[in-house]
Write a structure and sequence with these properties.
This protein is of the alpha/beta class. The protein is built from 10 helices and 11 strands. The strands form 2 sheets. It has a 6-stranded parallel beta sheet. Strands 1-4-3-5-2 form a 5-stranded mixed beta sheet. It is elongated, with a radius of gyration of 20 Å.
C-alpha cells in the first residue's frame, strides 16, 4: 500500500473533497464508507471497493487487517495516511482508521410499485433517514423510494446511521412519488394524527407501501390525498407525535407481526 504524507497530494485532496462536499460526491459519482462496520458490510454484501484508505495506526489492527488483506487479494488500490491526515477525512471519533471509496449506486426506478416498500417525502435528517433504512431492512422491506427533496441516501452521515442497511436494500432517489403512487399495484399507507383508524386495526398482512415525510412538516398534502389509507399510531401522554424514525419502526414491525 502506498504511503501518502503530503496534504498537497492530488489523491488526498480528492478524498478531502469527497469527505466534505456533497457536490463533489455527486460530480464524482463516488462516496465514502467510514469505519470497520460499513467496510465489512460492503465486502460481505456487494464486493470490493474502488479504493481502500487506512490510517497508519490501523494497519495491524485485528479488525482492519483481514479487510485490508481481502482488498489486497482483490487488487484494490490501497493507500496509507498518517493518523492526523486520516482524521481530517473521517467523521468517526475514536474509530478504527479504515475507509472505502465506492461508486455511488444509481438504481433504475421500476415502472410500477408492486411490493412492500418505504416512500420518503422530503426527509431531511441523516440520522432519521439511516434509522428508517435499518428498520426497513430488519423488517424485510427491500425497496426505498426517495423524493427529490429528500437528503442524499449515500452521504457519509446517512451511511453511518444506516449501519450497512444500504447494501441489502434497493434505494431509488429523485423519484416522482405522486406518479409512483398513482400507478401503485399495492396499497400505500400514510400515518396521520388526524386519521381515525389505528395501525393496529388496519390489515397489514399483504404487501403494502408506507409513506413518511418531513420531520416538521410531515407528508405533503397532495401525497396524503393519493394514499390508499391514512392510519394513526395511538399513544398516551402529551406529546403531539412520534419522531419519524420511531413512527416508521412501529409501522414496519407491526406489518411484520401481521405478516
Amino acid at each position: 500500500m502506498k504511503l501518502i504524507t503530503s496534504s498537497a497530494n492530488p489523491l488526498y485532496k480528492e478524498l478531502k473533497h469527497l469527505a466534505t462536499s456533497g457536490q463533489a460526491r455527486r460530480k464524482a459519482g463516488r462516496t465514502l464508507l467510514d469505519g470497520i462496520h460499513l467496510c465489512e458490510a460492503y465486502l460481505q454484501h456487494v464486493g470490493l471497493p474502488a479504493l481502500c484508505v487506512v490510517s497508519q495506526s490501523a494497519l495491524e489492527h485485528h479488525e482492519a487487517a483481514p479487510l485490508i488483506a481481502q482488498c489486497q487479494a482483490g487488487a484494490v488500490t490501497g493507500i496509507v495516511l498518517p493518523d492526523a491526515q486520516y482524521q481530517a477525512l473521517s467523521q468517526v471519533e475514536h474509530g478504527v482508521g479504515l475507509l472505502f471509496v465506492i461508486q455511488t449506486p444509481h438504481a433504475v426506478v421500476p415502472t410500477a410499485l408492486t411490493q412492500s416498500a418505504v416512500l420518503l417525502d422530503n426527509l431531511q435528517d441523516p440520522g432519521n433517514f439511516g434509522s428508517i433504512l435499518r428498520s426497513a431492512a430488519a423488517a424485510g422491506i427491500k425497496q426505498i423510494y426517495c423524493s427529490e427533496g429528500t437528503a442524499s441516501a449515500w452521504s457519509p452521515k446517512v451511511l453511518r446511521a444506516g449501519m450497512g442497511a444500504h447494501f441489502i436494500l434497493e434505494i431509488f432517489e429523485g423519484v416522482d412519488l405522486a406518479a409512483l403512487m398513482s400507478n401503485a399495484q399495492v396499497p400505500v399507507l400514510a400515518t396521520s394524527s388526524y386519521a381515525t383508524q389505528s395501525i393496529y386495526q388496519a390489515d397489514l398482512s399483504a404487501a403494502l407501501a408506507w409513506l413518511f415525510g418531513h420531520e416538521g412538516l410531515g407528508v405533503a398534502e397532495d401525497l396524503l390525498q393519493l394514499a390508499s389509507q391514512q392510519v394513526v399510531i395511538p399513544h398516551r401522554g402529551q406529546m403531539e407525535s412520534l419522531n419519524v424514525a420511531a413512527a416508521a419502526a412501529v409501522c414496519l414491525f407491526e406489518q411484520l407481526r401481521q405478516s
